[in-house]
Design a protein that fits this description.
Blueprint (H helix, E strand, L loop, with lengths): L1 E6 L2 E6 L5 E4 L11 H10 L7 H4 L6 E6 L7 H14 L7 E6 L8 H8 L2 H6 L1 E4 L8 E6 L5 E5 H4 L3 E7 L2 E2 L3 E2 L13 H7 L2 H4 L13 H10 L6 E7 L5 E8 H16 E4 L3 E7 L9 H9 L5 E10 L9 H13 L1 H8 L9 H13 L1 E5 L5 H6 L3 E2 L3 H12 L3 E5 L6 E4 L3
Parallel strand pairs: 3-19, 4-5, 4-9, 5-6, 9-12, 14-20, 15-16, 15-19, 16-17, 17-18
Antiparallel strand pairs: 1-2, 7-8, 10-11, 12-13
Length: 427
Amino acid sequence: MRVDLPYGRGTLTVELPADLDVAIVRKPAMPVYADPAAAVRDALAKPVGGQPLHAFGRGGDSACILICDITRPVPNGLLLRPIVDELAKAGIAHDRITVLVATGMHRPNLGAELEELVGDPWVLRHVRVENHHADDPDAHDDLGLTPHGTPVKLDRRFTRAAVKVVTGLVEPHFMAGWSGGRKVIAPGIAHRDTITTFHSHRFMAHPSADNLVLDGNPLHREQLAIAAKLGPVFGVNTVLDEHRRLSFVSAGELLASHAAAVAECARSARVPLPRRFGTVVTSAAGHPLDATYYQTIKGMIAPLGILAPGGTLVIASSCREGLGSPAFRDAQQRLVQLGPDAFVQSLAHKRFADADEWQTQMQAKALQRGQVQLVTTGLDADALALTGVGIAASVEAAVAASVARTGDRAVAVVPEGPYVVPVCGTG
């Protein structure tokens, strides 16, 4: 059987033997808009739980629009011009509108990458487009603490804007349940102290800090508490199909618009299967997510529900930009030295997480479930040694070795990586 996995800006073709029992795990077909630009305009005019954007913004003298960074394939080219036009209709001058890239603790998006991210040269010419910097204390306002003690420090370009707009992509998220909405605020434009608090072990180790889970999820709880300190926020949330086409867009009050997109995405993202598999093949979803090994870990977590204990997870990712940040490299070094169990135990006493070690903590979940084999062309020998996983020359070789080891000839292939969450049975 032949199957194509998203890989970098293209695909990686995998040929699996005919004598294997291969299950291809995909979302069901999703509706797509015949005219996505019109769908966006319609959503802005007919919002969920609030006024149209031009009415929401009336009387404001400034606006800040949050967009996700380059790690999310949000269709900003469809969204930003209509949003700016609505704000202008509300009476806000272009030079008083800022588009702020919600980088969290990721690197800034600059140059050609910023042009790709924004997706509309008109926007770059007419309004300010700037990056959030989590390590700049002078760039944040201190809004106090959440009821559970998380310090709330947010980028003042957003907190002090008269009109606040958040855009995003709703998809499964392996910590916060779902991306988009409140998550673009925190960690998106939060200070390091905020991010490293609710990404610490006491939040991340909670069983509800998982894909598709909002009820009881401590990260979601903190994100809601942080967003509540801001007053009214207008949200624009999108859902994409497997081919990155716009399937759904909702706009309006921050929580209501996010909930509508989550409900729509949940119809397709969760895929029940009748059994677990000794071998699961997946990807990191290709560009832009598979640029680093750091982001690749998201693809390791989504299919764990169908991986048999002790089975093999095979993941293909280009990792064309390398391992990730220096802080992530340090965390991976500790993982390799300590092993997954001892690494996780070493985090338990910390109030603040070290930067990016939460991703390594998530990788430990996969390593505690079974073996992980990585197929990549983007990492040098030093980086490969710090992945903490097995390295395979090809997907085919990794599958053959896994089938021989487990004796299970049933193989699940999840081409879309972290955007699909397969589960065993009805659970």
